[in-house]
Amino acid sequence: MSVTKQKRVFVAGHRGMVGSAIVRQLENRDDIELVMRTSSELDLTNQKAVGEFFAEQGIDEVYLAAAKVGGIHANNTYPAEFIYQNLMIESNIIHAAHVNGVQNLLFLGSSCIYPKLAEQPMTESALLTGLLEETNEPYAISKIAGIKLCESYNRQYGRNYRSVMPTNLYGMNDNFHPANSHVIPAIMRRFHEAKLNGDKEVVVWGTGTPMREFLYVDDMAAASVHVMELDDETYQVNTQPMLSHINVGTGLDCTIREMAETMAKVVGFEGDIAFDTTKPDGTPRKLMDVSRLADLGWQYQVSLEEGLSVTYQWFLENQDSFRG
Predict the structure, then answer these.
(1) What kind and span of H or E run contains 146?
(2) Rg for the chain (alpha carbons), in Å?
C-alpha cells in the first residue's frame, strides 16, 4: 500500500492574524505537513537566514502572510519600518523560494494598493492608475512590489506565484493596541473598556462617514487556500500576465458609524458614540470588486455581526495575552 507524500507547506507569519487563520485551515489536512518558524527562530528580514532555511527544509509551497501591519496612526508614525520590513520580508522569501525550486507560492497583499480615489468598487485593473492614500503609501508600495515580484518570477522563470488582495480584515489573533491597531480591534477594545468603566460615551476617530468593507479572517484564509489550490488552467483563464492579483472581500460595505453601532451592540455598550472630526478619515471609500474571485468559485460566509461576535468572545478569553 503506497503512502502519499505530504506537501511541506511553509506558513510565513503563522502567529499573526492571517497566518494563524491559514494554519487553522490546513492543520488537520492529511496531505500537508506544516512548517512554521517564530520571528525569534527565523528573522525574515535576514536574507542569509531565509536562504539557509529554504535550502535546508525542502519546502513545497509557501503562504506569505508575514508582514508589518497597523492602522492609520501606526502607518503615519513608522513609515520607514513599514516600507523596509515589508520589502525585505517579501523579497527574501520570494527569491529564496525560487532559488530552491518552490513552484507554488501565495502572496498576501492589501486593498491599500489601489489609488485613493479609485472608482468604486475597485477592480484589479485599478492598480497603478492613480495616487495612493498618503497615510499608508509606504506600506502600499511595499505590497505593490510584492505583486510585481510574483509577476516577474512567473514571467521570467515560469513560477506559479499568485497574489491575493484582502479588504479590511479582523478576527482572532488581531492586534488590539489602542493606538497602533486597525479600526475594528481598536474600537472593540475602546467599547469594551468603556463598558467596564461605565463611560457614557465612546469617541471614534474621523467623521464616521467613510465607507469600509470588512472580512472575517477565517474567510480570508479559506479564500487563500482556494486560490492556492486552483488548477493552473482554471487560474490562468481568470488572470492575465500583468494582472495576476485577485481581490478578496465580501463585495459589501458600510459606514464607520454603522460598524461602530454594530460593535456597540456586540460588546454591550449602551452609551453614546461621538466622532472626533479632527482625526483623519483616510480613504473616503474602499470597496472591492470581487467578481473575479466569485468566478473562481469562492464567496464569503461570515457576516459582520457574526464575525465581530466571534472575535469579541476570543478577545474576552485572551485579554491577558493579546498582542499590544
Answers:
(1) helix 137-157
(2) 20
* Active-site position among 63, 114, 139, 170: 139
Known binding residues for substrate: 190, 205, 212, 281
The b/e string for 9-42 (b: 16+ C-beta within 10 A; e otherwise) is: bbbbbbbbbbbbbbbebbeeeeebebbbbeeeeb
* Mean local confidence (pLDDT), 107-122: 94
Q: Give the separation between CA 26 and CA 42, rounded to whole angstroms.
A: 21
Domain boundaries, the chain: 7-317
Specify binding-site residues for NADP(+).
13-19, 108-111, 143, 166-169, 182
Q: Is the pTM higher than 0.85?
A: yes
Q: How far is CA 78 from CA 63, 119, 129, 137, in A?
A: 26, 29, 26, 12
Is position 63 annotated as part of the catalytic site? no
What CATH architecture applies to the domain 7-317?
3-Layer(aba) Sandwich (3.40)
| Residues 263-313: tens digit of each pLDDT | 999 999 999 999 999 988 877 888 999 999 999 999 999 999 999 999 999
